[in-house]
Amino acid sequence: MLPEKYSLLLKELSKKIPPKRLVTDPLKTLAYGTDASFYRLIPKIVVQAHSEKEVIETLKITGKMKIPVTFRASGTSLSGQAITDSVLIVATHSWNNYTILDGGNKIQLQPGIVGARANIFLSPYAKKIGPDPASINSARIGGIAANNASGMCCGTSQNSYNTIADIRIILYDGSILDTSDPYSIEQFKKEHSDIIQNIIKIRDNITSDSLLYERIKRKFKIKNTTGYSLNAFVDYKDPIDILKHLMIGSEGTLGFISHITYHTVTDFKYKACALLIYTTIEQACEAVPLLRESPVSAVELLDRDSIRSVENDPDAPEYFKSLPETVGVLLVDIQANNKEEIQEKESIIRKSVNSIPILQPYKFTSDPKEYNFNWKARKGLLASVGGLRKKGTTCLIEDVAFPVPRLAEACTALKKLFKKYKYQDAVLFGHALEGNLHLVFSQDFSDPKEVKRYADLMDELAVIVVDQFDGSLKAEHGTGRNMAPFVEKEWGEAAYKLMVQIKNTFDPFKLINPGVIINPNPQIHLENLKPLPEAHDLIDKCMECGFCESSCVSEGLTLSPRQRIVVSREIARLKKTGENTQRLKHFLEKSNYNVDETCATDGLCLLACPVGIDTGIFVKALRKEKIRSFEKKNARYIADHFQRTSSFLKTGLSVAYFGQKFLGNHLMSFLSSGIRKLSFDKIPLWNRAMPYPAKKIKLNAVHEGNELKVVYFPSCINRAMGKSEKYPTEEVSLTQKTEELLIRAGYTIIYPENLNSLCCGMPFSSKGYVQESEQKSMELKDALYKASDNGKYPILYDMSPCYYTSHSHFSHKDLPIYDPIKFMLEFVMPKLKVKNPKENATIFPICSVKKLGLMNDLMKLTQLCAKNVNIIQTNCCGFAGDRGFTYPELNQHGQRHLKEQIHTGCSEGYSTSRTCEIGMEEYSDINFKSIFYLIDEVTR
Predict the structure, then answer these.
(1) Please, are residues 290 and 135 in contact by the beta-carbon 8 Å criterion?
(2) What's the rounded Cα separation, in Å, for the pair 930 and 737?
(3) Cβ count within 10 A of residue 759
(4) Sheet holding 69-72, edge to edge
(5) 6, 31, 239, 783: most buried by Cβ count inside 10 Å?
């Protein structure tokens, strides 16, 4: 039950915002209210705002009722600035508009756009946004700007503060200021003269205090996100310019950013990096000021513990293991628009650090494997500590900065600090050019003694950073709740009073993200600590960072991988404590649909997860636990009589085909929807892209007598499903098309024995039937061994998901199985001549292709067939095997941005999975089919 004032608020909000976007369900308020920090507050109401108007209405109503609000985008922030126990306004999925300005020199972005997507928009212009946080593939523009997030290459010169062109903000009273609009500025000055006058007053106070003025200038020569951006009062005179820059790094405490315009920066074509290894970390730090004066794009510092955490990586050089304990390593990166400039920059860099002795020779490399490993070693440090920590502990990432000339001293002091408080797993690394160091270590918050140890560490850390080195307690992760008690210590009384004045100016009723940055509670950093109970071996290492969310098809429909884990942990906690049986019952009931049934189990979250968690595998494990005895028997029967099951599927397709033919799409869709409703959604939903049954395959060898031989394994899906309504009348099913291509390339085609009984096992594993999946996988393996003469001939799969399943299930070193993309690229295309390449081709790389690392191969294959290639950027299509029929809302949600990605005039798209093609066709209005059809068309 909501408290009375929140019930009244909900009633008022419902008049302005659709009730389905006002979330009060306890499971979802917990899930949506969790961020990447180690704090936990659960919102009473989550408002999924879709427009400025809805944000304004929410602020007006909550303001009138004196109820606090907090703004939120991706929630990848680390310091507790995106959580609340009141009202959470989420601005994500309907905040994705952008405009390229001035030939790519500027870009206007709404807050819901993921940072990496902004760079994709800018890539045709060889430009990118300046900020490059490690979370750029997940963090959204609203959070990047509000936290002044920086990163490895942007330093301070290219962060949001220094690259902002204009901003549009909504203030506490619902009023709007757009700094790109002169009329908006004039109206704001008239209606909010009090804010303008306060800004001027603070500016004048700072400029008249020479000590404070110089202190502000000095403190922002290194990275600093502690408190508000007081440098705005030093760098600018005009109050609008000051206000614009003050919003950067304000962490949602001064207003809501509805869009921001950035000056873009050059995205260089050529890149190279080197590992400079010094005997001591002090020597490495001595090189940093010299490198700062040279043409480097990034310099990352790694200590011996950092190297140790990655030295067993298969791609790591052998010498990593023999480096001395005192070693200091600098990862130096250079970028340019041509190779000659790269060489010139390398020469300058070598000369700049030549005076400092180095442990061993170094080289700058542009080799993709070496270059990517060097950066993987740096970026993977979070995973190294996070993945090895004890269950139930939190992975903390503290973030400080020091004057660069004193970086070596600071490193020594921090190492002594960790040793004093026995943080044995602590790793030290950072952005050396800006004096920025990250401290990664594990912390147990379930034990009061451990909390006290952390409190003592933080107190002493503040003394070291502030009193000893006059550095920044937060360099790029934001103040949040984590460092709020220490803001005055770092800045001093005079500066802190000005910050309080800034907060009061923009939030006079203290309703906008209260408790963040400005907080009088000296213990707030030790309160509301997030519980991390053990829940399951597959997910216990999760740091709840949210990196997975931008990869998840169900995020925004039900839950993301992070949110599934949050809910599962809460269920585990409630079971253990027994404190609230009603809440536990509710979570168990709601989790069936939200955690289990709408998870596509596509595994794309694994690619983004710093600690290598595949939440899809976890959900499959949950499904396995819930299997009832009669369901187990049914699955076993289907596995043992698979040919009969396949025949039943073809019969069903035949019935649907005749229904579609005689009733038409509209009536067929209407009847199908009605039957599904009557069955309480138990009967799968027919859609207009449902294929016709495939023709029976003649299983004798095809085109016999050729020296070239291939074993062709048509998936059970393609053996059952033929072409769909939109295929040309004269077109044939995929199995026939594959035969045509292989014959044209000069192959004899061999089919495995008992083909119609064979399956890769994926339909079973996706539903949790592990034993049956393994049974079918091994049956297939044996049949392929026999058909290929014990691995003598290559084996072609015609669907990437089936290949991926076999690739995962059994060893194939002596069994040469091939994904359709790889086989066509390596074995077929070299034997065919492209006679009539298409002008344009649209392709969709399915989940398996991404997990197998075949994106480049798919691109190469398509470029052989078409002059221009358009790649659909959707993650998973949401069809997820058969879930597009049983949970069609998942497919619909996954395809919500598909049509806008289809270029004008495009009538066909290509993929490597029949079920995905069905889902894509349903929501694109174009015909999606196997890429084999494209190859056939251009080589015919």
Answers:
(1) no
(2) 10
(3) 26
(4) 22-23, 45-48, 87-90, 69-72
(5) 31
**What pLDDT digit, counting tens, does each position of 144-180 carry?**
999 999 887 777 889 999 999 999 999 999 999 999 9
pLDDT of residue 543: 92
* DSSP strands (E only) in 248-327: 256-263, 265-266, 270-278, 298-303
- Position 709 in a domain: yes
pLDDT in tens, 20-44: 999 999 999 999 999 999 999 999 9
Which residues does residue 330 pair with via DSSP β-bridges, in sequence order? 276, 301
CA proximity to 72, closest of 44, 41, 32: 32
Q: Are residues 239 and 368 in the same domain?
A: no
Asked if 664 and 767 sit in the same domain, the reply is: yes
Q: How far apart are CA 85 and CA 525, in angstroms?
A: 16
156 and 85 within one domain: no
Q: How many CA atoms are closer than 13 Å to the CA of 304, on its beta-carbon side?
A: 15
Is 585 a domain residue? no
Question: Of 56, 77, 93, which residue sits at a domain end?
Answer: 93
CB count in 10 Å sphere of residue 655: 11
Give exposure, 52-83, as e/b (b: 16+ Cβ within 10 Å).
bebbbbbbbbbbeeebbbbbbbbbbbbbbbbb
Q: How many domains does the chain have?
A: 4
Higher pLDDT, 137 or 59: 59
CATH code, domain carrying 17: 3.30.43.10
Strands 45-48 and 69-72 come out as unpaired
SS3 content of the chain, % helix, strand, coil (to 5): 45, 15, 40
| Separation CA 129–CA 836 (nearest Å) | 39
Looking at the structure, do residues 81 and 119 belong to the same domain, yes or no? Answer: no
Query: Could you tell me if 736 and 882 lie in one domain?
Result: yes
For residue 436, the cross-strand partners are 401, 431
Are 643 and 888 in contact by the 8 Å Cβ rule? The answer is no
Joined tokens for residue 246: 């003050």
Residue 253 shares a structural domain with residue 282: no
CA distance linking residue 352 with residue 329, whole number of Å: 17
- Order of strands across the sheet that contains 298-303: 270-278, 328-336, 298-303, 427-431, 436-443, 394-401
Contact between 266 and 538 (Cβ < 8 Å): no
The strand pairing partners of 332, in sequence order, are 274, 299
The DSSP H or E segment spanning 428 is strand 427-431
Q: Report yes or no on whether pTM surpasses 0.85.
A: yes
Q: Residues 747, 709: contact at Cβ < 8 Å?
A: yes
Provide the 8-state DSSP code for 597: I
Distance CA 310, CA 339 (A): 30
Q: Which stretch of DSSP H or E encloses residue 645? A: helix 642-678
Tokens at 654, concatenated: 């035949």
Q: Do 812 and 932 share a structural domain?
A: yes
| CATH code at position 361 | 3.40.462.40
* Pairwise CA distance, residues 400 & 841, whole Å: 49
One domain, residues 325 and 241: no
Average pLDDT estimate for 258-285: 95
Is residue 477 included in any domain, yes or no?
Answer: no
3-state secondary structure string, 827-877? HHHHHCCCCCCEEEEEECCCHHHHHCCCHHHHHHHHHCCEEEEEECCCCCC
Compute the distance between CA of residue 325 and CA of residue 306 in angstroms, rounded to an integer: 11
Question: Which residues, 6+ apart, have CB-to-CB distance to 203 below 8 Å?
Answer: 233, 237, 239, 242
Domain boundary at 93, 114, 137, which? Answer: 93
- Is 543 inside any structural domain? no
Compute, in degrees rounded to 10, the torsion defined by CA atoms 357, 370, 330, 464: -150
DSSP string, 426-473: -EEEEEGGGTEEEEEEEE--SSHHHHHHHHHHHHHHHIIIIIIT--BS
- Residue 307: domain span: 270-402+421-442
Q: Which of 541, 531, 533, 566 is nearest to 451 (CA)?
A: 531
Rounded CA separation 450/396 (Å): 13
